Amino acid sequence: MTILYNGTYPGLLSAIFESYRIKARPTRIVPEADWRGSLFEEPLVVATRSDWAERVRAGVVKKTSKKGERMLYRCLLSEQPDVEMLIYDFVRQSMKSKTNWADNYLDDTVLRLQQIDKKMGREIHRMHAFVRFQQTRDDIYYAVIEPDFDVLPLIIDHFEKRYPAQTWLIYDSRRHYGMFYDQQRTEAITFAEKDHLNLRQISASILEEGETDYQEAWQKYFTSTNIPERKNMKLHLQHVPRRYWKYLVEK
Fold it and tell me: What is the pLDDT of residue 190?
């Protein structure tokens, strides 16, 4: 049986609850947007219900921990193939176990989820370090990112705390949505026109006066502090992978 859900974390938890309710183990759990259809199968479409999702979430926290439940959310955002079934298997085993299933590193499902979560952690850390804002004439600080995983919802708290008195927008050009912070709250936004948001730098015509000068000064400083004799590109690439360079002012 294939279960379709809306692609969100509450949607996935609702799908898991429904599988328990009807006493049927799914063979696949797939976002509706990714379903290609089949002549030989009629999938079960599960609507998102907050009460169902909360019961599953609370159950995972009770049987494992808040950290264990948080891992499931992070892993879903990894967009890895069949990650939904890994999460389903983890929940099923957790509910049956008398111990914290998240600590069972001998289990293949737990091991794979831990590996995915570790990759997510590295990507989050890199986004904290590599996001570069540009100031517009409207006094909005704008940054473009293109992470390997959908980590944008996981890095917002960091920037809310770091820049609480600034209005900013971080836009994921790969997934075509952004997070806008107005000094009070943060909300997800999308744009009708996406092409101009895929550029490394936004148009100089909408930058705040002096922003271009600041960027040039930063590039000169970065170059002047570089010591050619101590240059180690192999080490540099380990810490700053090339795929991030196009969004770094100093590059």
Answer: 86
Q: What does the CA dihedral 73, 78, 83, 87 come to, rounded to 10 degrees?
A: -20
**The tokens of 128 are what?**
């904290």
CB 104 within 8 A of CB 122: no
Provide Rg for the chain, Cα atoms. Answer: 22
What distance in Å separates the CA atoms of residue 30 and residue 225, rounded to the nearest whole number? Answer: 50
Report d(CA 34, CA 186) in Å as an integer. Answer: 28
**Average pLDDT over every residue of 56-66:** 96
State the pLDDT confidence band at 132, using cuts at 50, 70 and 90: confident
187 and 93 assigned to the same domain: no
Strand arrangement, sheet containing 186-189:
134-135, 140-145, 167-172, 177-181, 186-189
Work out the angle at residue 33's Cα, subtended by the Cα atoms of residues 148 and 74, and round it to the nearest 5 degrees. 40
Q: What is the rounded distance in angstroms from the CA atom of residue 84 to the CA atom of residue 9? A: 10
In this structure, how many other beta carbons lie within 10 angstroms of the beta carbon of residue 179? 19
Average the pLDDT over 19-40 and give the result.
91
Fill in the DSSP letter of residue 207: B
100 and 24 assigned to the same domain: yes
- 84 and 166 in a single domain? The answer is no
Q: Is 2 helix (H, G, I), strand (E, B) or coil?
A: strand
Instruction: Look at the chain and report how many structural domains it folds into.
Output: 2
**pLDDT grade, residue 240 (50/70/90)?**
low
Q: Which range of residues forms the domain containing residue 56?
A: 2-123
User: What's the whole-model pTM score?
Assistant: 0.80
Contacts of 92 (CB under 8 A, 6+ apart): none
